[in-house]
Amino acid sequence: MGSAFSRYPSRLQEAIASRLGWTRLRPVQELSSHAILDGNNVVILAPTAGGKTEASIFPMLAQLVENEPEGVGLIYVAPIKALLNNQDERLGTYMEMVGLSRFLWHGDVSQRDKRNFVKQPTTLLMTTPESLEVMLLSPKVPVASLFRDLRALIIDEVHAIAGSDRGSHLLSVFERLMRNTTNDVQRVGLSATVGNPTDILKWMQGTSSRPNCVVNPPKVPSQKDIHVFLCETIPDIARDASKIAQAKKSLFFCQSRAIAESIAERMQDRGTDVFVHHSSVSAEERQAAEASFHHGNNTCIVCTSTLELGIDVGDLDLVLQANAPSTVSSFLQRLGRTGRRTGARANTTFYCEHSEAVLEAIALVELAKKGWVESVRVQKRAWPVLVHQLLALTLQFGAISAERCWEQLMRVLDFSGISHTEFDSLIAHLVREDYLVCIGGLLSMGERAEKIFGRRNFMEIYAVFSSPVLYKVKTAAGRLVGSLEQDFVDKLVVDMSSFLLGGRAWTVSEINHFDRTITAHPAPGGKKPAWGGFSPQLLSFEICQQIAELLRSSEPISYIDSAAKHALSEKRLELGSSLTPKGLNLNVEPGRALWWTFAGGQINHTLRYGLMQFQDWKIISDNFCIRFEAENLSSQTIHDSLKHLQHAESWNNENTQQYILNQLPNYRLSKFQQALPDHYAREMIANYLLDLPGALRYLNTLLG
Known about the structure:
- Helix content is 42%, strand content 17%.
- The protein folds into 5 domains: 5-215, Rossmann fold (3-Layer(aba) Sandwich), CATH 3.40.50.300; 224-369, Rossmann fold, CATH 3.40.50; 383-462, Winged helix-like DNA-binding domain superfamily/Winged helix DNA-binding domain (Arc Repressor Mutant, subunit A), CATH 1.10.10.10; 470-522, no CATH class; 580-703.
- The longest helix is centred in the first third of the chain and has 16 residues, at 81-96.
- Helix 6 packs across helix 8 (165-178), helix 14 crosses helix 21 (541-552) and helix 23 (601-614) crosses helix 28 (692-703).
- The strands form 5 sheets. It has a 7-stranded parallel beta sheet with strand order 3-4-2-5-6-1-7, with helices on both faces. A 6-stranded parallel beta sheet has the order 8-13-12-9-11-10, sandwiched between helices. A 5-stranded mixed beta sheet has the order 17-16-20-19-18.
- It contains 28 helices and 24 strands.
- Strand 23 (618-621) and strand 24 form a beta hairpin.
- By secondary structure, the chain is an alpha/beta fold.
């Protein structure tokens, strides 16, 4: 096979050589170019900063330059606006160097610019899934002419949306868009970390009949600098992190906005310029944080997952982590933000508050060393997105038949597990509850749906994810600091309450409930804001099993500090000898028992609810163990109960299924959940909280 570069048209070859100064393509770009130019749908895997963007855009340009489309020829979708903004100049350069154009469309782009784009469309459209929905629903956007010659779709950071409601939403919108073109639109997904790229490729395929190809070049081994410290308190973490962050550029990842605020506030005035970056900090504050990385070497951005994706914040020296992320994928994404300069090494330093976080951090590192990363579980019964799309279709067409809705939506893999009978029962329920109205065989939006989702000209319909009621926080001079959720605001008292936001403390001067604004002034100290949370952190079976393996072992861990080593030793003494690879690891005492499964949250919760139907025991479960309280407990009674659950038929009868669904907590996982029949709403919760196939595999391995 010849070089992929030689397959590019001369105009593109000359532009790459003269404008970019490139003399050759990287291996991932060679392989991807051949796969795309051969007409495949492709998933491209490469580390962060590994050249995935060019691996997808160059062969696309090669095709577009030789046969320019009428209207939009290529859509580039990113999961967050920040990534789009970050890629705008880069992709703009690539388009312009071959005489093509691009346009960035999301909520922050002016209406005037959008109107100009509609009048004179560009070859490349850069957007989010939600903005594609806006375009479909807007009467001012001539979708049919705009996308009639669409050739390809690129989904960046595809692992971040596949298997989620946003992924289901994107493919639903995209398949609706496909009705405006006769082209078999090529699909390309980009990811640094995913364990099942073939499944992701099948998910992306949709109605395309193109062949599929995964591009996954061999990884070049490299040395990493990993450290795990046990600090025990937030002040200790802030103090220790401040020392190593001085004169460096660092990202400090936290698992919640509240922890990020608390750490950032305590890092202030310790010799480093500290910024905060999360979804409740204003866009201006986030942009200032990103800009600070381009001016000097003494900046730490304390952030949540908002900076985990491929946003370029410049030459980064350090990645810091408070406690541990819940997945290997997140760890690798964050680790990959460093080590990009020649001679630099990728690094992550964990600061843990407790021994469990130490164990999680070590487990993530050890699994990554083995080359393991999570698979994305593609869903096939995406009930809330189906409701969302039904309402969106009525908004798009005014009135539409149920059969036409079925025909449009069932092209999407995420709905493929829903039968026509179930679809019809959902439609009937939505009509009964006045979310839909059926007149003359055509469905329109009902009064109840208009009341709930029609605010701000149906803005609630454009996005599938839930948006809490937010109050904007401003200074007396009118500078926007960020936002707080209403539940937290309701507890604030004017001139008395202080809170943290943007890494600084503020006192409430005024609360305007009509405009939902808070005026605040600087304060000497404040408390962590409370942001909405509704579900537990569920660690995977593999991570928990790695922790069990760690506890059974006596091997030293070289990258942890003395405090972490002491905590690990104590946990090994406490549990290691009782954890066998096979058999029940039970600690039974009169009236209570502990079963150390290390099977992960979903499997443990599944076993808990299964046991609850057959035994009148008090049962509590978490990621690592199941706790029993009852008078008749013994190793034998627990073993016998589990034997009863070992076979699928014990779970598949209707009474058992209904019992488990009725016992589940009423988590609110989607704003469209309220429109579902109760059975389907509880099925959503079960899909999040439980894993029956995993529980059966675990029991059969355990009990034989």
